[in-house]
Each structure stands twice: as structure tokens, then as C-alpha cells.
Amino acid sequence: VRRPIDAQGILIWPNVERFFQKCISAQWFEEMPNLRYLYAADVNFQGTYQHFPIDLKWLQLNNCFFDLPPSDFNLEDVVILDLYETNMVQILINQLPLRGM
């Protein structure tokens, strides 16, 4: 029986000694309901994103790519957003609400 992982922050970096995966399943995040901080570098995400963290405050993706960029990615609570060299920048920009108008 799988149990939720009570992590509020996670670093995914394939150059770290314990982490050698270059591809990550988006379903991996289903077991992390309390995730608020996500930093990933040099990895590819695969799969659907219905279980991707929805309460993120900090999302930093550097040189990360999605096989199917999420079209319903929730940015409502994100305070810090860094998508350096990802393939989802334009999709997310189209979802940002125009505030103060």
C-alpha cells in the first residue's frame, strides 16, 4: 500500500549522487499532496498532470521538458515562477490572469 509523502519541498536534479533519472513520471507527484516548493533541473516529465501539485508556492524548472505540456496547470497560488529553458512557458503565460485591469 502506497502512503503519501509528507514533503513540502523537493529538489530534482539528476547530477545529485542519489538521483540518476532523466525522466520523471508526473504521477510521481500524486503521493505528495503537501508539496509547496518544487525545483527541478535537467529532467523530462512524462505522463498526465492531473495529480501534479496544485498548491505550489514556488515552481522553478530549469532545462526541463514535458512530453505533453499541461494545459490546465494551476498557477493560482504560485509566488515564485522560473521556467528557464522549458517548453511550457507559452502555455502557462496564456493561463496567467491579468491582474489590476
What does this entry look like structurally?
This protein has 1 helix and 7 strands; from the N terminus they run βββββββα. The chain is mainly β and 101 residues long. The protein has one domain (9-91). It has a 4-stranded parallel beta sheet with strand order 1-3-5-7, with no helix packed on it. The protein has a 3-stranded parallel beta sheet with strand order 2-4-6, with no helix packed on it. The mean pLDDT is 77.
Which value, in Å, is the CA radius of gyration?
Answer: 13 Å
The poorly predicted ranges are: none
Number of helices: 1
Number of domains: 1
Percent strand equals 15-25%
The beta-strand count equals 7
Order of strands across the widest beta sheet?
A: 1-3-5-7
Bin the helical content. under 10%
Identify the overall geometry.
globular
Overall pLDDT confidence: 77
Q: Name the structural class.
A: mainly beta
Task: Work out the oligomeric state of the chains in this entry.
Answer: single chain
The CA-CA distance between the termini, in Å, is 49 Å
Taken in chain order, the helices and strands follow as: EEEEEEEH
- Main sheet specs: 4 strands, parallel
Could you name the key traits of this structure?
101 residues, mainly beta, three-stranded parallel beta sheet, 1 helix, 7% helix
